[in-house]
Amino acid sequence: MPNPSRLQLFILVAFAGTLVDVASSAALAGDKPNIVVVFTDDQGYGDLGCFGSETIRTPRIDGLAREGTRFTSFYAQVVCGPSRSALLTGRYPVRSGGWSMPASEITVGQLLQKAGYTTGCIGKWDVSNRAAIPERMPNAQGFDYYYGTLGANDNGRVAIHENNKLLGPSQDMASLTQIYTDKSIAFLEANKDKPFFLYLAHTMVHSVIDASPNFKGRSEGGLYGDTVEELDHNTGRLLDAIDRLGLRDNTIVIFTTDNGPWNNFQEVLRKRHNGAIAWGSSGPLREGKGSTYEGGLRVPCIVRWPDQVPAGRVSDAIFSTLDFMPTFATLAGYEAPTDRVIDGIDQTELLLGKSEEGSREDFYYFCRNELHGVRRGMWKLILPDRKTFYGYVDDKGSQETELYDLQSDLGEKKNVVDQHPKVVEQLLAHAKAFRWPEKLIEPRIRLAPPKKR
Predict the structure, then answer these.
(1) How far, in Å, CA of 209 to CA of 201, rounded?
(2) Pure H helices in 286-345
């Protein structure tokens, strides 16, 4: 037989590589990964050991970071309801409605159900105006099982629902983290033999916080630190359950939070907690919850998927909760909606370590329905004449155009707008190019009172 030519060898090698890629894709499609999202509340960028905290011990979450990838340019939204509608729909809150998310929105839960997943939501819902409106509650929005509270705990009270049934009120804030974790573990145990999606949205560490007796007084970070350390312990319990059930290798675990810490509301929080520290840290970032400076919405994110997501890696690529829906589409085998704008971007290549920079080039910063700024690459532009702010945000900036190099100035301390006029011009054009919806949904936390006749 004659020796094969170089061209023939090249074709054979290329074909073999294609077969490997096809086989890998087929394996993913045939053995759909379980997906677990742990979503804490009001936890700051600097509130985990692996993100630099020196006063709060988080060994289990730090271990998760060693076993997976830690994302340092990860974005949620500036407050809780908008952050949840963005995660669930892959759409900025100006489209998805935040607290007022309409029943017509398509959630990641609904798409995963169609792809053969059993879905569970445990914890804080907060996209039905904190009201029991069945068509806007989890069971109607893509979740087979629900246990939790439809709203926040601002008054130190919550009303617990199981599916659509009201179980009753609770003022025991210290018990919520363990109860949610218990329910989550029970969900895993009941569904271990089929693909599942668990969305665990903790109430802690929001507004009125507390820790159980086993954790109170243990942390150097005060009551807030105690509560975060209890979250860490219970995250470890959930991870241990995944291991015990033999699910580790085929389960994607994501840990992140809904917005920055409420460190700009300290006096009110101190009074609510009898002088105790009840707020977190933005670490090196400017401002906190409610702000469109980085401290308001750049949050910790860790992703683990053994032998798929690189372990011990740190990525500074721009990534967001918006990206979960299209990324899960690739990993779980469904199609993202095509009848509406999806702001999320498929970040599968970034997650799997096949791309360092990822697929997201930009991120838009909103406060309610006002655009405050835009990021592209290392550059962040703050728009002038902003009018919409949350009342507790102290640092409202200069009200003029601001430009920051986030690569060298993470704390947004040096406005370099005068040194880079071309960059400013490009980013202003990019801000103007945002595709606004035809109609904006009023961002109300609760339903509007009925009009008097």
Answers:
(1) 15
(2) 324-332
162 is a domain residue: yes
Residue 139 · residue 163 · CB < 8 Å: yes
Longest dimension (CA), the chain: 95
Q: What Cα–Cα distance (Å) separates residue 201 from each residue in 148, 218, 383, 414?
A: 9, 24, 32, 36
- The whole domain housing 422 covers 363-432
pLDDT in tens, 369-378: 999 999 999 9
Q: How many domains does the chain have?
A: 2
Place of tokens 């509608």: 85
For 176, the 3-state DSSP assignment is helix
Give tens-digit pLDDT for 409-450: 999 999 999 999 999 999 999 999 999 999 999 889 999 877
Question: How is residue 343 written in tokens?
Answer: 């702001």
376 and 274 housed in the same domain: no
Residue 161 belongs to a domain with what CATH number? Answer: 3.40.720.10
- Is residue 447 in some structural domain? no
Tokens standing for 387? 């009018």
Residue of 25, 85, 78, 53 whose CA lies nearest to 286: 78
Residue found by looking up tokens 């086993």 in the block: 214
**Dist CA 45 CA 284 (whole Å):** 8
Residue 63, token pair as written in the block: 């271990």
DSSP 411-452: T-----TTT-HHHHHHHHHHHHT----SSPPP--SSPPPPPP
Among residues 297, 301, 291, 308, the alpha carbon closest in space to that of 389 is found at: 291
CATH number at residue 377: 3.30.1120.10
Residue whose structure tokens are 């945000």:
393
Answer yes or no: do 254 and 370 share one domain.
no
Helix (H) or strand (E) holding 36: strand 34-40
| CA atoms of 391 and 97, how far apart (whole Å) | 20
Round to whole Å and give the CA distance between 100 and 103: 9
Tokens linked to 309:
């997501």
SS3 204: coil
| Whole-number average pLDDT of the chain | 94
d(CA 355, CA 170): 46
| Same domain for 355 and 373 | no
